[in-house]
């Protein structure tokens, strides 16, 4: 056993104390920095998820009213940003038949030819790039994309996309160059899916490598418009913040969300949704239903023709504090009325999400992905909810809102492209 | 003995480091998508055609007492008045009410009626013409502030004249402990701070709406307008003293052109962007007199002076026949700014 003189021991103790103090301070500082990163619908981030993008300009879907989505992405940084984006196609399509749009899009089996099934077909991703200057906001109609190189100035259509002066309406209108990149149009036909965008380096031999920056905010407005209806709903994109924000370029195109080797904040352990129960009467002239759109945090974009299937558990509380539960499965995209999560079409009034079962107007639903523990990709989920208000004349107006997020999953999620 | 002490010290040190590492997964909690202890609903309206439904949920597994305040700042009144009421929410209980009707304590409500469920308490209706905010604070059974971070809320703004609907989430400020006192200090010690800057994606007033133009009844006569409603994080709910400040802003269009300015705000303020003297040039399309913005999409960074601010935006999209659709959304936030909420 080593022995120390008194002074030596004191010195050593002081040294140890200093080391411990520094370690503790360092640890706390590290916690303060790393812990600040989060998944949020209101803070700038390096990875954006728009859970729902819908295009149906011909009104082929059930209510017959054309739909389109305006996507807005803003660079909040004083430096330019390059963004690598993916539309993920979650449109249900017929196994047999041309469906509603001639390309197989469908809502139920009845939209397909005899023997055909309406099912989630491809989950294919289409990628594109955006080049944003410092502080630049951009927006586009998902149906049209961006296929031009400038915006009109003056005249009667300022701000509309153009490539030459003749594209702009009105006296004195000119087309001013501002090339943000190309975005593929999603029309004609029906598109229902999500949009995911990563802030990337934009230069070098692999310009699509992610960078440690958190500069992007975004939101989406879904329109239902015809000659007598204007119905608009807006939600914020969910931002997943990079853990480091030093601007460094990472060396692969796999994003690790959460876990011990996290590069980005972890997806929430639970989603909490406050909603009205389906078919609740908010007044004599207003019946409400809600649709939820669920997307996975883990995704192998462009390289996965057979995405993993996740099981989700729903715990529902009504205003009597009564608790009920349900479960469902999610592949790469799921958009459905709440009452159809646990019941087939036509059986909605038997659902735990329906006022006919719950008896109160408001409910709280906690959504939890069931851990698989078998080494599959992470099972985190994100969502957005739409509320549809229908009057006795069958006129429908809608609103979208972001769901609440709770906790941080222990299991990481990965996004590969 | 000394070695033992060193081991103990080292053990403590590593435990602290591990503890710190463990909390790296903790996240800042204030915001519009996480439960908190103070709920701020910036926009509550009851006009001739519009009404508001409030939803509040206790996300915890024990009973939660809540003290709420309707707040209004009538023009020219010089004060910021509050009307208070109390709620008791059982575990995981959601509740809702229409502000024009409030909510009675009536256990005989029928299945599926608006009052069905455990009544959380007597909630007064707001008078016709009310425009203001709602602030709710977690308290204990004696009414003292008690942070549990279990509240979340949503607002549905209805237009009964045309069926329109807009929805946003309440901003929830998280408590950082359970021993709060009055006033509530939003200073990252007692409660988390409020946002120091707000980012708004918007279309300048008077812009043509590209979707309405393409799919609706427009012929280059569609019209977009944007209303911003702000609630200060510096609130005196006891004396009704009206806080004042200035929001400085910088607007960027798609050509990256910056436009800056400022406008005043009070405890609660609502402003039609691009339709006031302070915002005409910066928030208005060139299609309208005095407008300067040449693009349809723009961003604005709003920075309040002195104290934090939460806000909600509502955009209106009209076709040439005057058919209007509205959409509400929460703003993006960054930074931090302190605030103080004084309870009666």
List keywords for this structure.
heterodimer, A: 417 residues, mainly beta, seven-stranded antiparallel sheet, 2 helices, 41% strand, B: 344 residues, Hypothetical Protein Tm1070, Chain: A, 2 domains, five-stranded antiparallel sheet, 9% helix, disordered N terminus
Give a topology summary.
The complex is a heterodimer of chains A (417) and B (344).
Chain A: H1 6-34, E1 39-40, E2 47-55, E3 67-75, E4 81-89, E5 92-94, E6 118-120, E7 125-132, E8 137-141, E9 150-153, E10 161-162, E11 174-177, E12 181-182, E13 191-200, E14 216-225, E15 230-236, E16 238-240, E17 254-257, E18 270-276, E19 280-283, E20 286-296, E21 299-300, E22 310-317, E23 323-330, E24 334-337, H2 355-358, E25 362-369, E26 381-390, E27 396-402, E28 404-406, E29 413-416
Parallel strand pairs in A: 21-29
Antiparallel strand pairs in A: 1-16, 2-13, 2-16, 3-8, 3-14, 4-7, 4-13, 5-6, 7-12, 9-10, 9-11, 14-15, 17-29, 18-25, 18-28, 19-20, 20-24, 20-26, 22-23, 22-25, 26-27
Chain B: H1 2-22, E1 38-46, E2 50-58, E3 64-72, E4 81-89, E5 94-98, E6 130-139, E7 151-159, E8 164-169, E9 171-173, E10 184-186, E11 197-202, H2 210-215, E12 223-232, E13 234-236, E14 244-253, E15 258-266, E16 268-273, H3 280-283, E17 298-304, E18 309-318, E19 324-330, E20 332-334, E21 339-342
Parallel strand pairs in B: 13-21
Antiparallel strand pairs in B: 1-6, 1-9, 2-5, 2-7, 3-4, 3-6, 7-8, 10-21, 11-17, 11-20, 12-16, 12-18, 14-15, 14-17, 18-19
Overview of the molecule:
- The complex is a heterodimer of chains A (417) and B (344).
- Chain A is built from two helices and 29 strands.
- With 417 residues, chain A is mainly beta.
- Chain A has one domain.
- Chain A has a seven-stranded antiparallel beta sheet, with no helix packed on it. In chain A, strands 23-22-25-18-28 form a five-stranded antiparallel beta sheet, with no helix packed on it. In chain A, strands 19, 20, 24, 26 and 27 form a five-stranded antiparallel beta sheet that branches.
- Chain B has 344 residues and is mainly beta.
- Chain B has two domains: 38-182, no CATH class; 197-342, Hypothetical Protein Tm1070, Chain: A, CATH 2.60.290.
- In chain B, strand 14 and strand 15 form a beta hairpin.
- Chain B contains three helices and 21 strands.
- The chains are: A mainly beta (417), B mainly beta (344).
């Amino acid at each position: 056993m080593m022995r120390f003189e008194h002074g030596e021991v004191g010195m050593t103790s002081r040294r140890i104390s200093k080391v411990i103090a520094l370690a503790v301070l360092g640890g706390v500082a590290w916690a303060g920095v790393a812990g600040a990163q989060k998944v949020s619908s209101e803070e700038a981030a390096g990875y954006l998820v728009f859970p729902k993008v819908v295009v149906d300009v011909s009104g082929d879907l059930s209510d017959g009213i054309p739909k389109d989505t305006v996507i807005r992405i803003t660079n909040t940084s004083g430096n330019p940003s390059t963004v690598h984006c993916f539309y993920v196609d979650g449109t249900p399509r017929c196994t047999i038949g041309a469906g509603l749009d001639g390309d197989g899009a469908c809502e139920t089996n009845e939209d397909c030819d005899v023997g055909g099934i309406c099912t989630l077909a491809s989950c294919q991703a289409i990628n594109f790039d955006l080049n944003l200057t410092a502080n630049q906001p951009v927006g586009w109609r998902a149906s049209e994309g961006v296929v031009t190189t400038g915006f009109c100035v003056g005249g009667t259509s300022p701000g509309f996309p153009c490539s030459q002066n003749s594209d702009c309406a009105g006296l004195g209108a000119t087309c001013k160059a501002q090339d943000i990149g190309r975005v593929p149009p999603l029309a004609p036909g029906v598109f229902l899916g999500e949009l995911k965008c990563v802030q990337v380096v934009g230069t070098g031999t692999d310009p699509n490598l992610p960078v440690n920056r958190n500069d992007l905010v975004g939101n989406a407005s879904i329109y239902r418009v015809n000659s007598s209806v204007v119905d608009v709903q807006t939600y914020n994109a969910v931002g997943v913040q990079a853990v480091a924000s030093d601007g460094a370029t990472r060396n692969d195109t796999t994003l690790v969300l959460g876990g011990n080797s996290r590069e980005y904040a972890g997806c929430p352990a639970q989603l909490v949704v406050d909603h009205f129960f389906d078919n609740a009467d908010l007044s004599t002239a207003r019946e409400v239903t809600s649709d939820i759109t669920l997307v996975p945090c883990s995704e192998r974009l462009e390289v996965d023709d057979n995405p993993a299937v996740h099981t989700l558990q729903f715990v529902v509380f009504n205003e009597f504090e009564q608790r009920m539960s349900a479960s469902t499965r999610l592949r790469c995209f799921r958009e459905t009325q709440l009452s159809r999560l646990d019941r087939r079409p036509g059986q909605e009034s038997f659902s735990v999400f329906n006022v006919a079962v719950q008896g109160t107007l408001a409910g709280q639903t906690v959504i939890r992905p069931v851990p698989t523990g078998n080494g599959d990709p992470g099972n985190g989920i994100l969502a957005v909810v739409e509320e549809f208000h229908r009057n006795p004349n069958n006129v429908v107006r809608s609103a979208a809102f972001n769901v609440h997020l709770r906790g941080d999953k222990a299991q990481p999620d990965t996004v590969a492209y | 003995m000394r070695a033992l002490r060193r081991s103990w010290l080292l053990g403590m040190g590593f435990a602290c480091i591990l503890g710190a590492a463990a909390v790296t997964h903790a996240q800042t909690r204030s915001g519009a998508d996480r439960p908190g202890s103070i709920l701020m609903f910036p926009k509550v309206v009851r006009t001739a055609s519009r009404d508001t439904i409030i939803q509040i949920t206790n996300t915890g597994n024990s009973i939660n007492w809540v003290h709420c305040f309707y707040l209004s700042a009538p023009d020219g009144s010089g004060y910021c008045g509050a009307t208070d009421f109390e709620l008791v929410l059982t575990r995981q209980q959601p509740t809702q009410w229409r502000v024009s009707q409030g909510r009675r304590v009536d256990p005989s409500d029928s299945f599926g009626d608006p009052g069905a469920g455990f009544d959380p308490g007597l909630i007064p209706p707001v008078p016709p013409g009310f425009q203001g905010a709602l602030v709710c604070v977690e308290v204990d059974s004696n009414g003292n502030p008690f942070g549990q971070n279990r509240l979340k809320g949503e607002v549905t703004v209805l237009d009964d004249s045309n069926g329109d609907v807009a929805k946003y989430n309440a901003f929830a400020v998280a408590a950082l402990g359970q021993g709060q006192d009055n006033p509530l200090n939003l200073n990252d010690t007692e409660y988390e701070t409020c946002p120091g800057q707000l980012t708004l994606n918007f279309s300048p007033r008077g812009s043509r709406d590209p979707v309405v133009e393409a799919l609706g009844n427009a012929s280059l006569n569609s019209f977009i307008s944007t209303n911003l409603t702000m609630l200060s994080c510096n609130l005196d709910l006891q004396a009704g003293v009206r806080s004042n400040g200035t929001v400085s802003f910088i607007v960027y269009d798609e050509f990256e052109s910056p436009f800056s300015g400022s406008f005043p705000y009070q405890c609660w303020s609502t402003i039609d962007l691009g339709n006031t003297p302070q915002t005409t040039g910066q928030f208005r399309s060139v299609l309208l007199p005095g407008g300067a913005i040449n693009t349809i999409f723009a961003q604005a960074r709003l920075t309040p002076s002195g104290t934090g601010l939460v806000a909600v935006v509502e955009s209106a999209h009209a076709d040439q026949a005057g058919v209007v659709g509205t959409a509400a959304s929460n703003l993006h936030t960054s930074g931090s700014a302190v605030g103080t909420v004084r309870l009666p």
